[in-house]
Amino acid sequence: MNEIRIGIIGYGNLGKSVELGIQQNDDMKLIGVFTRRDPATIKTVIEGVQVFHIDDAENMTDRIDVMVLCGGSMSDLPEQGPLFAGLFNTVDGYDTHAKIPDYFNTVNKNALDAGKISIIASGWDPGLFSINRLYAEAILPVGNTYTFWGKGISQGHSDAIRRVKGVKDAKQYTIPVENAVEAVKRCDMPDFTTGEMHKRECFVVVEDGADKKRIEHEIKTMPNYFSDYDTEVHFITEEELKKNHSGMPHGGLVIHCGKTGLKESHNHMIEYKLELDSNPDFTANVLIAFARAAYRLNKEGVSGAKTVVDIAPAYLSTKSADEIRKSII
Amino acid sequence: MNEIRIGIIGYGNLGKSVELGIQQNDDMKLIGVFTRRDPATIKTVIEGVQVFHIDDAENMTDRIDVMVLCGGSMSDLPEQGPLFAGLFNTVDGYDTHAKIPDYFNTVNKNALDAGKISIIASGWDPGLFSINRLYAEAILPVGNTYTFWGKGISQGHSDAIRRVKGVKDAKQYTIPVENAVEAVKRCDMPDFTTGEMHKRECFVVVEDGADKKRIEHEIKTMPNYFSDYDTEVHFITEEELKKNHSGMPHGGLVIHCGKTGLKESHNHMIEYKLELDSNPDFTANVLIAFARAAYRLNKEGVSGAKTVVDIAPAYLSTKSADEIRKSII
């Protein structure tokens, strides 16, 4: 069997998790990691993995079947997504929900020109959660879908706290409000305001002599990030932060309640829940499964940009159609 | 917009639920119900729905886009599935897991010959649970998948009790064992024996003067159905059975735990859970969503037998690709 030859663009947390995740998939082979830094300075997690400069990628189109793009959605992917879509089959986890339509169009054009496929906005949200929102809405059209995130660390909110004067370091957990989850599961079909679904817990390390009262106030009143939420601020030491809050757990729930029957008297609840010890590891594994789909679909002649809902689930599996019918259906 | 014209073959609980479910979908129109009984004797749930004899269906291939097959898997579908696959696009909920590969092959041949598509084994298990098993296994290949059913009524087990001498009527609930669910969610990756995952609760109405001791013993020791399980038997009156146990609730969970990381030190839990007030209503709504997919795929020239994992999720949605990217992804 031909192994699927994978390249990784960007070697941060997500890139490292993709490097590890590929080892769990016998039908794949990691060709190398591509970075903007000096390749000689990079130590890979797995010994012997080749490191290339990102500029070398364009000369390796015949050596790599799918590029997994592991850069950030803020500044890396808007440039790298369209660029590499014109050279390789790609998979990415572009996650700026509001800009997905524009990103899709730009990537689509280049991928079609190159005859390659690009699966964008993969991962878990967008990604698996999108898939579940779609199935649930299609099956129970008279109903409501609710998405809860957490408990998990939000990078954006942690960064926002770090920008407050006097803050040395910080981690912010997004946590679903328990009463809200229960109301949704009871099929009460509630309408929530922003702050009613999630609360925010912050662990903050301050500079020596910083004014904690002011910092707490500035965090809790920060517009968009915290002012609409029930926010708790805990001041802790640098050691505590390192010891207890250096993991990257995350997760969440998509819950859809719908009604059927002559008088809509029957309630149905569909719940999809993730509890993840490592957000980058799990996201990486989703990207890898969609990389398999990208490879296969392009072999069948499919090109252009796709999102996860455009891909039939079977393309993600290593099992043959026969095996799937025997052991999974 | 052209409405999708739907026919229903078989007018039992599932057929009636499909009749109701179609009313929730603006892009569909119910052309009629087809039955083996005398059409004049059928009173439909919704007034004005046309009732035809099943033998008339073959003359209506130009009036119906998708036939939803609502017969049973034991004796109806093995005959009706292949027959109607040769005439119409079809969707069914064939659920005899072990025979799905054979059923697929027979249906596939006729559907290909007719240039039609047949989506088989739809519903929730097989169906949505199959989809979730596949995604989870593909994303976390180092891991285990567990399927729990219930709390819900098992028709097969209820029927088995009714065959015991002296039993007038009975309902059997399949219930997941709580400790087993918890062990799975903790990612203990347990190996279970048959009876460790589910228990069985039976509500039994006996004939006057029947020997309850003997009946309870016969139920609890019945091979395949009950002898391997923790089984509770409650004797109740006919009135109680009617009042408290005439609904058709069901549900279940697919839980997959997987490991990632350099030393597989990260656990990830994916849980998909259904809580359904009406098993036939929910199953019907799944069939209806896949009927939409069947219609669209056949319009694109796709034919042959398919299972739910062969269908890209987007085909189930009434939303356009643009709308999906804007509002669901």
In short:
The structure is a homodimer of 329-residue chains. With 329 residues, chain A is an alpha/beta fold. Chain A contains eleven helices and 14 strands.
Explained architecture:
The structure is a homodimer of 329-residue chains. By secondary structure, chain A is of the alpha/beta class. Chain A contains eleven helices and 14 strands. In chain A, α2 (77-85) links the parallel β4 (66-69) and β5.
What are the secondary-structure elements of chain A, in order, as H or E?
EHEEEHEHEHEEHEHHEHEHEEHEH
How would you sum up the global shape of chain A? globular
Strand order of the largest sheet of chain A: 3-2-1-4-5-6-14
* Poorly predicted runs of 5 or more residues of chain A: none
- C-alpha-based Rg of chain A, rounded: 22 Å
Largest interface: A-B, 67 and 67 residues
Counting helices, strands and paired strands, the structural category of chain A is alpha/beta
Strand content of chain A: 25-35%
Count of beta strands of chain A: 14
**Main beta sheet strand tally, sense and closure of chain A:** 7 strands, parallel
Count helical runs of chain A.
11
End-to-end span of chain A in angstroms?
A: 25 Å
Oligomeric state of this protein: homodimer
Average pLDDT over all residues of chain A? 97
Helix content of chain A: 25-40%
